[in-house]
Amino acid sequence: MTVIEQTRAPRSEARRRRSPLGSRWTPYLFLAPAALFIALFQAVPLAQEIFLSFTHTSLLNPTSNTWVGLENYAHIFSDDEFHRTLTITLVYVVVCVVGSVGAGLGVALILNRSFRGRGIARALVTVPWAAPGIAVALIATWMLNPQYGIVNRFLNAVGLGVPGGAILDSSTYALPAILVTTTWQLFPLTSVVLLSALQAVPKDLTEAATMDGAGRWWTFQAVTWQVIKPTVGLLALLMTIWSLRRFELIWLMTKGGPVGSTETLVIDLYAQAFDSKQLGTAAAIGMVGVVISLIVIAGSRFVARAAEKENIR
Would you place residue 46 in the very low, low, confident or very high pLDDT band (cuts 50, 70, 90)? Predict the structure, then answer.
């Protein structure tokens, strides 16, 4: 062994001795910026919201807090209007999730086939998702205008016109109109993600199923669905959370009306905070939304683990 090799050996051994300590702290160093960001911009506001939900705080004097305990929660859960808001929120979330994921899957199956103009079709599908929510709300409001809206003209032409002509002013038709608009904006994202999942399905499995005489439905159920099922579950979770947080589209189209027929949790929260000036009540409503989101996330994790155990068996 030369002198250079002898001097290099101890250095390399010293590096190996120091490496366990470095490798132990390296993950924490990489996570530190994200943890600091979450603590400053999410954990602190959440803690403040939890505190406000137990106080009587007015927007006109937000520095003056009166501790009221569970009074805000007792007030909202004893209010029949809040019960209706929860029901509307549930309907809104379920329809938007099922509609966006279902429509996205259907469009993805079509775009996964070979046909002329497929590239252009894939690009056009993403337009509703790329458009800002404000633009989508304004376009939908214009299309539903009782005087010159194309939707009302079509419905009147086929004899299905809404009495009075104002769809967004009807407590019966306003919510379905918002559901269709929201689904129209959300389904492009699900279609693009599911298209990527469909392209990851092994072709040899589908070809083997076809050679065995399996039809399209059986091939989709036994092969394709098993591959894309985790992606569908993840999209359903994301669509649920986004639907719970949806504000600008509903507010710009109906402001929660008419007569509260389109008032979801976030619209009710906004009304309590900025119309009624009751920050404590608004914070309590916000915490109800947080709890619902946590329940949805925990439920999705439970279902995913159960599916994994079943697949292992």
Answer: confident
CA distance 1 to 6: 7
Backbone angles phi, psi at 287, to 5 degrees: -70, -35
Distance CA 258, CA 271 (A): 14
pLDDT, position 179: 95
Looking at the DSSP bridge assignments, the partners of residue 240 are none
| Model pLDDT for residues 65-78, shown as the tens digit of each residue | 889 999 999 999 99
Domains of the chain, first to last: 3-38 (no CATH), 79-312 (1.10.3720.10)
Strand ranges (DSSP E) for 11-128?
55-58, 61-67
**Using CB atoms within 10 A of its CB, is residue 283 exposed (0-12), middle (13-18) or buried (19+)?**
buried
- Render pLDDT for 123-134 as a digit per residue (tens, 0 to 9): 888 888 888 889
3-class secondary-structure state, position 205:
helix
Nearest C-alpha neighbor of 244 from the set 282, 206, 290: 290
Long-range CB contact pairs, 115-122, < 8 A, 24+: 122/192, 122/195
Q: Which amino acid is at 101?
A: V
pTM: 0.84
- pLDDT at res. 166: 82
Residue 57, phi then psi, degrees to nearest 5: -130, 130
Strand partners, 65: 57
